[in-house]
Amino acid sequence: MRKLLQFSLLFCFLFSLNTAVAQENIGIASYYSDSYHGRRTASGELYNKTKLTAAHKTYAFGTYLKVTRLDNKQSITVKVNDRGPYIKGRIVDLSRKAAEALDIVQDGHASVKIEVVPAPASAASSSVNIEAPDANPTPVAAPKPVEEKPAVVASVPKPAETIAKPKPAPAPAPKKEVKDPKTVSAAFAPGEKIVRGESYKDFDLYKVQIMRPVRTGYGVQVASLSNYQNVMKQVAELQEKWFKNILISVEKGKDGKPIYKTILGPFPDRKTAVSYQSQLKKKKKINGFIVDLTTIEYPK
């Protein structure tokens, strides 16, 4: 009886584990905003929207995944080089090129199944796994040295003659590593954490990094406020909903006082912005309208 009980518990555990794994491999796929192009990923590589890459929460960097849409069976193979997504229900974030291959740019997301697959032949020789190396690597036989035969000399110089040996070329100076100024570090100091919604307080100490983005593309404006304190609170609320690309346009009001407009983006074209606006209203119940970032006027 006791053994039967132990067997039943083991069976239930394995069944629930298999169910959890199956659920983890089926879910929603989304894709990176173009504003992340050139930024450093969790693996250390720079995100390139023209490469077939993806973010996953657990698979090792360098793992290749076959991502298949469940509605039309289209599939694409991508390499994991980042961590995420962290929105409930989403299991993979795709690069722009991978999203275009699966036709999910317009909708913004799609239901997919992911499977681990071997590295493509084209990537097997060039891809580098930057995770910890194998503890027991397979030894590789060293190539046999090629025996060089002495060159035939037509004439032997007289002993009195001396032949000047060419001086070896000086070794090139090591190049200094230049950090990309556009790369944004995602590291946090001990004790730091992102402020979200309910954790925001009117009076507290906050760390703010102000950057001036390139004024190109389109955005979705979701608010226009006159009090900067309300702006900070709204940013915290948007962060609680996992919004990352939040712009604040400080413009001059009719009375000469500043107006703070909250804009999500930027997006490379109006079509992408309109798709995002539609999903924003449908999924998050947030109303917004499209703005052309190049037409916003600021006092000189």
Topology:
Layout lengths: L1 H23 L1 E6 L21 E3 L8 E6 L5 E8 L7 E5 L1 H6 L8 E8 L3 H4 L93 E8 L2 H13 L5 E7 L5 E10 L2 H15 L4 E4 L8
Parallel strand pairs: 1-5, 2-4
Antiparallel strand pairs: 1-6, 2-5, 3-4, 3-6, 7-9, 7-10, 8-9
Written description of the protein model:
Helix content is 20%, strand content 22%. The chain is of the alpha+beta class and 300 residues long. Among the domains are: 14-122, Barwin-like endoglucanases (Beta Barrel), CATH 2.40.40.10; 197-295, Sporulation related repeat (Alpha-Beta Plaits), CATH 3.30.70.1070. It has a six-stranded mixed barrel with strand order 1-5-2-4-3-6. The longest helix has 23 residues, at 2-24. The chain starts with a helix and ends in an 8-residue tail after the last strand.
Order of helices and strands: HEEEEEHEHEHEEHE
Cα distance, first to last residue? 84 Å
Beta-strand residue percentage: 15-25%
Give the full name of the CATH homologous superfamily of the domain at 14-122: RlpA-like domain
- Pick out the low-confidence regions: 11-23, 124-163, 176-187
Q: Round the mean pLDDT to the nearest integer and report it.
A: 75
CATH top level label of the domain at 14-122: Mainly Beta
Q: Strand order within the widest sheet? A: 1-5-2-4-3-6
The strand count comes to 10
CATH architecture of the domain at 14-122: Beta Barrel
CATH fold descriptor of the domain at 14-122: Barwin-like endoglucanases
Quaternary state reads: single chain
Please summarize what this structure is:
With 300 residues, this protein is α+β, with helices and mostly antiparallel strands. The chain is built from 5 helices and 10 strands.
